[in-house]
Specification:
Elements (H helix, E strand, L loop, with lengths): L4 E14 L2 E14 L3 E5 L6 H9 L7 E8 L2 E2 L5 H7 L4 E4 L3 H4 L6 H11 L5 H14 L5 H5 L8 H13 L5 E5 L7 H18 L2 E6 L2 H4 L5 E6 L2 E6 L1 H6 L4 H8 L49 E4 L2 E3 L4 H6 L22
The structure holds adenosine-5'-triphosphate (ATP) and magnesium ion.
Length: about 350
């Protein structure tokens, strides 16, 4: 997508030193987000989605080793002073978490907390902030916002709490909103309503959105650009159509095959066997090789780079031509995967 990048991530690496060695949670992630663009990041649990976004917010523990670059409107955030990051957080870069109860304080009313979020980054009076808090609750579709502003977080339903979080995220007109599994805890109809609210407000506040989820079904129809992450790296990147209709990396194919809504009626649902590799001691080669049904010898020695497979479409696999030639790539997962020496695919 065209437009000046607002946020540019280049070769981001994050390692967590532990007693057993370094957990390589993010291993060279690069992407950029332009104004009003919606970028989706998908991948299984533990692939580094949250750590990537925490790095952008400057919220990683002090022990984390961060490499590479994160630029917000040209300003380098990696290694930036805590104070500079705090000034950006909640104003220019806002975050919506999976569980709003952990982000809200149970002992204060929702209206008060919204007002405080506003006042932290502006010189609004208390009264003006309360008024704006009620407007924001109205904007995110909370009925009777005056009454609701006086209530505590536990008096809100899950969907309403998440709307209140969205209100908080947009309160200071951010340039970027990072939504990390914003609807995972909600039931499906409420999920759709909350995401619609988020997208509607994106244009109102002119923000870019990074939508993180493990559910490919959630992002279809919502995002401009989609990144598939596996074992700390982006393994495929493209438009929603590229990913859904022209997947080139077997892991993406596997994700699609385990997705009910994308399976399109008669297709069989096939979960990917096995689990992601440990990020503590990664073996050489492609990290998906142990689970990949079309694995070949070279996959066990060299980790493939992301390479162009079409306009704006990248995939990290040596067999992208083979996948492209398949009439129905999802069928590759129907056959039992080859057993490779040291394979973790048989769990
Ligand atoms: N403070 C930490 N110390 C050590 N390892 C960590 C720490 N934080 C995260 N990790 C590890 O980094 C990896 C990536 O974690 P991350 O939370 O980014 O996954 P995720 O893709 O967001 O998963 P989920 O879908 O479950 O939220 C995991 O293996 C996790 O165990
Ligand atoms: Mg996460």
């Amino acid at each position: 997508m065209s437009g000046e990048p607002i946020l540019e991530v280049k070769d981001l690496t994050v390692g967590f030193p532990t007693d057993d060695g370094v957990v390589h949670a993010v291993r060279g992630v690069s992407y950029s987000v332009a104004a009003r663009e919606v970028v989706g990041i998908v991948g299984e649990s533990g692939c580094g989605k949250s750590v990537t976004s925490m790095a952008m917010m400057g919220l990683l523990p002090r022990t984390a080793r961060i490499g590479g670059s994160i630029r917000f409107r040209g300003q380098e955030l990696v290694g930036a002073p805590k104070k500079a990051l705090r000034a950006l957080r909640g104003s220019k870069i806002a975050m919506i978490f999976q569980d709003p109860m952990t982000a809200m304080n149970p002992v204060y009313t929702v209206g008060w907390q919204l007002g405080e979020a506003l006042r932290a980054h502006s010189d609004l009076s208390g009264r003006a902030a309360s008024k704006r808090a009620i407007e924001l609750l109205d904007l995110v579709g909370i009925p009777q916002p005056e009454r609701r502003a006086e209530q505590y977080p536990h008096e809100f339903s899950g969907g309403m709490r998440q709307r209140a979080m969205i209100a908080m995220a947009i309160s200071n007109n951010p340039d970027v909103i990072i939504a990390d599994e914003p609807t995972t805890a909600l039931d499906v109809t409420v999920q759709a309503q909350v995401l619609e609210t988020l997208l509607r407000l994106k244009d109102e506040v002119n923000a870019a959105i990074i939508l993180i989820t493990h559910d490919l079904g959630v992002v279809a129809g919502m995002v401009d650009d989609l990144k598939v992450m596996y074992a700390g790296r982006i393994v495929e990147s493209g438009t929603v159509d590229d990913i859904f209709y022209r997947p080139r990396m077997p892991y993406t194919v596997g994700l699609l095959g385990s997705l009910p809504s994308a399976a399109g009626g008669t297709d069989r649902l096939t979960p990917i066997k096995g689990s992601p590799p440990s990020l503590l001691r990664l073996k050489p080669g492609c990290p998906f090789s142990a689970r990949c049904p079309i694995v070949r010898d070279e996959c066990l020695s060299v980790e493939p780079e992301l390479a162009g497979v079409g306009p704006g479409h990248l995939a990290a696999c040596v067999a992208t031509d083979e996948v492209a030639a398949m009439a129905n790539p999802k069928d590759m997962f129907h056959a039992p995967p080859l057993v490779v020496a040291g394979s973790e695919a048989d769990t």
